[in-house]
Fold this protein.
Amino acid sequence: MFIILLLAAAFTLSAAQNVTLLREQLARQNITALFPNDAGYAAASLAYNLRFTVNPIAIAYPINVDQISDVVKAGADQRLRVVARSGGHSYIANGLGGKNGSLVVDLSQMTNIVVDPVTNNAIIEPGNRLGDIALVLNEVGRGLPHGRCTYIGLGGHSGFGGWGFPSRMWGLTLDNILSATVVLANGDIVTASEDSNPELYWGIRGSSSSFGIVASIEFRTHPVPPQATAFQYLWEMDIPTASNAFIEFQSWVLSGLLPIEFGGELIMLKGSAYGQIELGFFGDYFGSWDSFNDTVNPYLSQLPTPESTNITQGSWIEILAATAVGNLNTTTQPDASDTFYAKSLMAPEDVPLTNASMVALVTYLAEVGFNNSDDWDVEVEIYGGQGSVINQVPLDATAFAHRDTLFTFQPKASSANLLPPFPSSSFGFLDGLVSSLTSNMPSDWNWGAYPNYIDDELPDWQERYYGVHYERLQQLKSSVDPQDTFHFPTSIQEL
Ligand SMILES: Cc1cc2nc3c(=O)[nH]c(=O)nc-3n(C[C@H](O)[C@H](O)[C@H](O)COP(=O)(O)OP(=O)(O)OC[C@H]3O[C@@H](n4cnc5c(N)ncnc54)[C@H](O)[C@@H]3O)c2cc1C
Ligand SMILES: *[C@@H]1O[C@H](CO)[C@@H](O)[C@H](O)[C@H]1NC(C)=O
Ligand SMILES: *[C@@H]1O[C@H](CO)[C@@H](O)[C@H](O)[C@H]1NC(C)=O
Ligand SMILES: *[C@@H]1O[C@H](CO)[C@@H](O)[C@H](O)[C@H]1NC(C)=O
Ligand SMILES: *[C@@H]1O[C@H](CO)[C@@H](O)[C@H](O)[C@H]1NC(C)=O
Ligand SMILES: *[C@@H]1O[C@H](CO)[C@@H](O)[C@H](O)[C@H]1NC(C)=O
Ligand SMILES: *[C@@H]1O[C@H](CO)[C@@H](O)[C@H](O)[C@H]1NC(C)=O
Ligand SMILES: *[C@@H]1O[C@H](CO)[C@@H](O)[C@H](O)[C@H]1NC(C)=O
Ligand SMILES: *[C@@H]1O[C@H](CO)[C@@H](O)[C@H](O)[C@H]1NC(C)=O
């Protein structure tokens, strides 16, 4: 009986879809939209990661929150899957729905930024890219923490985290959200803040897209630091030297010697010979120029002299520009694309990495990695260390589930020319890379994964991304989106 009812429901779902009607409804409301046979649709439905081909039923371009609401209602009426796209940089094309046939609400027309001159709070629309936000805020001497890839959209970045070099001093992007205007699945336009819809406010800071479309966000901003330094050191190392450099790196981050103004990462790249890797250490320091050497020397003094050193000192915005991937002003050049697979591993601070796991990773990269023909790298991003503001936020204050993170690893492999096809052997290569760490840690080691480095091959993603918060997210999902309108491959499942 139950099965028959389910089949009947599934039949009603597909029978209800009427593309002609959708086109008419959007046109009547003056909402620009592209459908499969329209000029421009093919370009508009290209994913950033060309490993994915996704054909939405339509891509709509609302210009304000009322139009977002109209699109959501039109989609929900026909039981379509509806998704938001801001910068389109999802690793698995979730901004296009991740599956064929979704209705995409593209927010690229919504790029207002208004800074209140009294409170310095900024109301920023989600279609803005990170580089442009940094430029506009800097004009009034303010800044936000976020990643350095300038073309990332605010909507996705702030919905799931938002880590960058300023994050140890200012937190993740989402930690600075004071309130947001959200369009729910029934078209309602609501405010999410501590005082208004507090559970929704909790959920949009860590897993936003399962609950609604965020139409604008109010942020607390920070005065920009007067001086900043960008640094980059590179070495070619054999396995014992690189293992030691990694072990000393963890000791240094755990030592309590790093001021919160320090942000950085190690990067591990293919070496020039079997049994070697290239190691980079780079980042930004937002303390005074004069104090930079004393800050990095405790670590550098444990290592051989770098083969290349590049230190740049300047203002906040000069240093953001120096470290950026892409121009800060994103209107000057089109966005790029890639064909890649990436994974993530968030290592908890309370159970540091064993020497064996660090040696195993370096050995794997220097041997298996050297033999692998793809373009790969592993980033080891500093989240923790004494005083890090990321880890000062109480675990249950937001839906972000990893407030005890020492490092976030991002192993990534791209096809050699960055175009399809993606070599299927690289999935196994990256799985083995992660195993080299986890298999040398206690079996109950509670590692997490970062939902902004979203991985379509992670079997236990609910637990890895959301940990103890998953069930609470499911409750919220059931209450605000009972029809599962905001559905995509890694959306929160209803209870
Ligand atoms: C080259 C590159 C470098 C990166 N570097 C960093 C980094 O340094 N630090 C870091 O933290 N991350 C980094 N990322 C990851 C990045 O933060 C995520 O991919 C992010 O989700 C992209 O946001 P977007 O708006 O561009 O993507 P989209 O594809 O538009 O959206 C991503 C997800 O968010 C949802 N979404 C988008 N807008 C909204 C909205 N307004 N309301 C509700 N849901 C929405 C989408 O539906 C989708 O599920 C990087 C990514 C790339 C490609
Ligand atoms: C789809 O909608 C159009 C326009 O409203 C209508 O003319 C048509 O009959 C509908 N088709 C179906 C199968 O319901
Ligand atoms: C759509 O645009 C037309 C022409 O500009 C205008 O008359 C009409 O009121 C608009 N409709 C809506 C819903 O905004
Ligand atoms: C969408 O459809 C196209 C064409 O049939 C197909 O190549 C592609 O793999 C589909 N995408 C997904 C995510 O299933
Ligand atoms: C980016 O450059 C364009 C063209 O020079 C300019 O109009 C725009 O204001 C710039 N944007 C920002 C955020 O500075
Ligand atoms: C910092 O160290 C570099 C090289 O190690 C040196 O050139 C520079 O003068 C030092 N700066 C200060 C302020 O001591
Ligand atoms: C040093 O770094 C700066 C800023 O990242 C960059 O502009 C410059 O080209 C680099 N110099 C060298 C020699 O790599
Ligand atoms: C880990 O390696 C470091 C550096 O080689 C060494 O000083 C330390 O004693 C090792 N720790 C353990 C537990 O073996
Ligand atoms: C790498 O390739 C070489 C040459 O084919 C081979 O001897 C070696 O065993 C390979 N190493 C690994 C770890 O696969």
User: Anything to note?
Assistant: Residues 18, 20-21, 24 surround 2-acetamido-2-deoxy-beta-D-glucopyranose (ligand 2) (CB under 6 Å). The first strand starts at residue 32 and ends at 34. Confidence is low (pLDDT under 50) at residues 1-13.
